[in-house]
Amino acid sequence: MSVRSVMCFGDSNTHGTRALRYATDRRRLAPDARWPSVMADALGHRWEVIAEGQPGRTSVFDDPIEGPHKNGQAALPGLLESHRPLDLVIVMLGTNDLKARFGQSAHDISLGLQRLVRLVLSSDCGPEGRAPQVLLAAPVPLEETGVFEDVFAGAAQKSRALADLLAQVAARQQVHFADMGQVAEVDPRDGIHLDAKGHAAVGAEMAGVVQTVMKS
Predict the structure, then answer these.
(1) For residues 79, 84, 89 and 91, what is the CA-based torsion angle, rounded to 10 degrees?
(2) Terminus-to-terminus CA distance in the chain, angstroms?
(3) Which end of the chain is more exposed for a tag (fewer CB within 10 A), N or C?
(4) Helix and strand counts by DSSP (H, E) for the chain
(5) Domains of the chain, first to last
(6) Burial classification of residue 31, based on how many CB atoms lie within 10 Å of its CB (0-12 exposed, 13-18 middle, 19 or more buried)
């Protein structure tokens, strides 16, 4: 049986960033504690899991504070080509789109993620020049607290609306969907990032979803 490959395209919660104690805190969970590694361990040796998590990554927005390199839409085509052929691309973004500086509704954020889904589906970066399959994952809802309280002012309620909207995007685009808000909570120290327990829960859930997706 050939090895199957999955790319995890996400933000700091795919990167494994730990809850921030202060704005320039750069701590990261150990490699084997991050959810893509937990998922890879559960899937077994016949899977290659590629973790492409960038702190601050948005779906389609240039960040006027942190820089245009945070735009996921700009980064994704190159990553698809770098790692092809890919059997599956997991897209789990949207949290950074909720920053107050962008002023976006949950509905418009879901449309930004729809653009990423369409970008993957229009590529030839899957097996035999086809498009990869896509799993659109709703991120864990955030809390307005800690060092990010002002950055994400007004975002908590919108973050809770994302799952239903992203499920609708997945249905329209005929791709797979999973809601990580059903299995994990953010670390209350900063209201954004997952702790080791959260990563373990997300990794285990993702492994089960991936196994189901690839059997369909």
Answers:
(1) 0
(2) 17
(3) N
(4) 6, 5
(5) 4-215 (3.40.50.1110)
(6) exposed
Q: Which two tokens stand for residue 134?
A: 């896509």
Strand boundaries in the chain, DSSP class E: 4-10, 47-53, 88-92, 133-138, 176-179
Say which DSSP state 65 is in. Answer: T
Say if residue 110 is exposed, middle or buried (CB neighbours under 10 Å; 0-12, 13-18, 19+). Answer: buried
- And the tokens for 41? 């361990």
Torsion of CA 82, 84, 88, 90, to 10 degrees: 10
Write out pLDDT tens, residues 52-90: 999 999 999 999 999 999 999 999 999 999 999 999 999
pLDDT at residue 1, as a whole number: 63
121 touches 131 (CB < 8 A): yes
Separation CA 96–CA 99 (nearest Å): 6
- Paired tokens of 191: 């209201």
* 63-66, Cβ contacts within 8 angstroms, sequence gap of 24 or more: 63/96, 63/101, 64/101, 65/101
Nearest of 214, 198, 211 to residue 16 by alpha carbon: 198
pLDDT (tens digit, 9 = 90+) per residue, 135-161?
A: 999 999 999 999 999 999 999 999 999
89-110 pLDDT, tens digit per residue, is 999 999 999 999 999 999 999 9
Copy the structure tokens of residue 37. Answer: 């590694």
- In the chain, the amino acid numbered 112 is G
Cβ atoms < 10 Å from Cβ of 21: 12
Please tell me the distance from the alpha carbon of residue 172 to that of residue 182, in angstroms, as a whole number. 22
